[in-house]
Amino acid sequence: MLYTFSQADYAQRELEGYFANITENDAVVLWQDGVLLAIKYPHCFEQCPAECLLLEQDILARNLTALLPRESKVRSITMLDFVAITQKFYPQLAL
After folding, report:
1. What is the pLDDT of residues 56-88, one digit of tens each?
2. Rounded to an integer, what distance in angstroms lies between the CA atom of residue 25 and that of residue 2?
3. Which residues form a coiled coil (predicted)?
């Protein structure tokens, strides 16, 4: 399953509740304001068993590159990568 987060206003417990259902066979993509979650709750993403990804254009648009942890499980992807991921993971849960 593909989980996409486009907002940054999730409470930590709410986010942890979503992550409790995520497995190593899933993917998590942060895009739009959702990219702020990687900065706001980095420990949640370090413990997530799925591949965690950030849309590069949204990181650049918000000038967040310097704020992202250097050693992180979360990696950035291009829009073309995102398209490929949406084809690979089904169904999608947009949050």
Report:
1. 999 999 999 888 877 778 999 999 999 999 999
2. 9
3. none
